[in-house]
Structures are given as structure tokens and as C-alpha cells.
Amino acid sequence: MAGYFDTADGVDAYRIARWNGTTWSNVLNGLDMLLVAHDMLVIGNVLYIGGSIDLACNTPLVNMVQWNGNAFSTLGSGELELHSSSLVHGTVYSLAEDQGELYVAGNFDNVNGLVCEGLLRWDGNAWHAGPSGLPTTFNLDVGFINGALTCAQNSNYVMQWNGSQWTDLTSGWTGSGSTSTMVEFNGIPIIAGRYNAGPFALDPDWGELGSIAGSPGIGELRIIGNALYAVGDQGVVVNGFVERHTVMAKWTGPLSVPNLAAETIGLYPNPATDRIRFEQPARTSGDLRIMDVTGRTVEGWSMDEEGQLNIAALPPGLYQLQARYSDRLSLGRFVKE
């Protein structure tokens, strides 16, 4: 767990603590670098932590570190800088993974002399700038929506990379304000932020996905199992003073996917290593997708002949195949070994 704290249940744990199922412990013993974490992500056997530098500490200025289970180290210099400002330091707000590589988004424009637009890719050894052309260098979230690299900016824009240029995913959205979090739920893009409304879903056009009492600012959307949760805060007047109270809500209403008549696709072999086949070949006019356990559409697959799907590029795990048509939805689950 990471955040702005210095103890966990009475245990000294500055900014980051580890829970073993029974007790909290401090994982920063011997670390000569400290940061205020905003996001954490595990890829393989490495934990990546991004955030803002901790000016209260007399240590090297870092905002991006990794933990291999035994020790912390930096990614490059460890500081993603904001050269366009002499007053504000660079900040990492969001981390994402695609095909084993780390994507980092935030408010920064330089790392180790590499110029970027608030978006970087770490291949395990070196930094690479993200695609250029974003409206601003200030990104609040990064992810892969419908298989495409997507950045929620500190503006009204949610930009998506189509392979050659950035396009506005929220074109036609009537809301206003910065999007702080986004997910893909059953193939449907959902965004939330400090709009005093929402979340909003592209289903098939942008519309409000219900409403949460008090219209809190939403800082995080998470999919757990097959349920969508929103976490945020709102101002509550207590004894004449405004306090910030945490709000958590669960979405229980329908999206377009459950409204379709659903049927099961038989898949074999299951588990599979390189290809899966349909018991009855799906109609190629439908929208075929493979989604991971979080509901995110994954990349690295292609239809190579009728009734067959190439899954050789997928990491091992549990997946759902979804074939959507105008009048029905076909679903199947398989394990990639």
C-alpha cells in the first residue's frame, strides 16, 4: 500500500507499507530515496511505483522506482522532470502495462535528456518517448481502451492513439472537466473525474452511467470480479467546517452487453497454447474481442482462418472471447498456457 502516511497500525512505514495477511511492515528500510506514491503496478516479478518527489526528505529527488522483492532501484535517473517549469517538479500519476512493457503518464517533459509529452514507455532497460502530438504534456491516467493506448489529460480531452495520430475518444461527450480515471468494462469505455456528475459510458454514445449521491469527485474506477467500483471524495459540512469524506460506490445497473441475448461459444482445445477453435465458427461480420480478467480488450490476436483464433502472443492466463452482433452476444472462456 502506498500513500501519504508514516505509520501503519503503529508500525513505522514511511509512505509505503506491506501487508502479509496478518501485520504491516516497513519496506523502505535502507532505502536512500523516498517519494509520495500515486500508482503502483506489478509486471512479472517487478513492482513499479510512481509518484511525486518528497521534498521533506534529504534524499535524492526521485518519482519513479522499482522493487524486485529484495531492493529498490531507479528507472534511469529515477526523476521524470518538468523542464517547462522552474517552480513545479515532475509528477507521475498513472502506470499501465502492455505486452510486458511499462507505460508511465503524468506531468513531466524530460527524463535523462529524453524529451516527451507526459508519456513514456519503459522496456525494462531504457526509456522511450510516447507518441507525440498530445494537446498538453499533463496526463492524469493512461491505459489501453479497446486495445488502443489512451491518455486522460488534465483538460476536457481523453486522447487515443490509432497507430498514426491522436484522436479524441470523448468526441460527442457533453460533460466538462478533467478525466482522472478510465476503464474498459465488458468492452465499453467508461470515464470518471471531477465532473460533479457521472461516471460516463460510451454505450454506444456517451451518456451518464447512473449517478452517485452527492456527485463526488471520482479518482479511481476499478473492476473486481465482474463488478465496477468507483472511489472518490466529496465535501461534507461538519460543525460548520467542510471535511473531505471518501465515497465508494458499486455499479449494479445494466450496460448494453447484458441487454443482448447471450449464448455460449464452445472453444477447444482448452487450455490452449497457440490457437483456439470454435465449436461452431462465429460469423465474421461480428465484433470479435478477447478480454482479460479485468475486462480490458487485449492485443496480440488475429483471426487467421474461419473458426480459428491465433493466441500465441497472449501471456498465460484466463481470458474471455466475446463475439458481438446486432442482435446477440456470444461468450466463451479459455485458459492460455
Helix content: under 10%
Q: What is the total domain count?
A: 2
CATH superfamily of the largest domain: Kelch-type beta propeller
Q: What is the percentage of strand-forming residues? A: over 45%
- Report the strand count: 33
- Structural category is mainly beta
Specify the overall morphology.
Answer: globular
Q: How is the CATH topology of the largest domain named? A: Neuraminidase
Poorly predicted segments: none
Instruction: Report, as a whole number of angstroms, the end-to-end distance.
Output: 30 Å
Q: How does CATH name the architecture of the largest domain?
A: 6 Propeller
In angstroms, what is the radius of gyration?
21 Å
Give the strand order, joined by hyphens, for the main sheet: 5-6-7-8
Averaging pLDDT over every residue, what do you get?
81
Number of helices: 1
Just give the CATH class of the largest domain: Mainly Beta
Describe the largest sheet. Answer: 4 strands, antiparallel
Q: What does this entry look like structurally?
A:
This protein is mainly β and 337 residues long. It folds into 2 domains: 7-255, Kelch-type beta propeller (Neuraminidase), CATH 2.120.10; 260-336, Immunoglobulin-like (Sandwich), CATH 2.60.40. 1% of the residues lie in helices and 50% in strands. The protein has 1 helix and 33 strands.
Protein topology:
Layout: E1 7-8, E2 11-12, E3 17-19, E4 24-26, E5 35-43, E6 46-53, E7 64-67, E8 72-74, E9 91-98, E10 101-107, E11 110-111, E12 114-115, E13 119-122, E14 127-129, E15 139-145, E16 148-153, E17 158-161, E18 166-168, E19 179-185, E20 188-193, E21 200-202, E22 206-208, E23 217-224, E24 227-238, E25 241-251, H1 256-259, E26 261-264, E27 267-268, E28 275-278, E29 287-291, E30 302-305, E31 308-310, E32 317-324, E33 328-336
Parallel strand pairs: 26-33
Antiparallel strand pairs: 1-2, 3-4, 5-6, 6-7, 7-8, 9-10, 10-13, 11-12, 13-14, 15-16, 16-17, 17-18, 19-20, 20-21, 21-22, 23-24, 24-25, 27-28, 28-31, 29-32, 30-31, 32-33
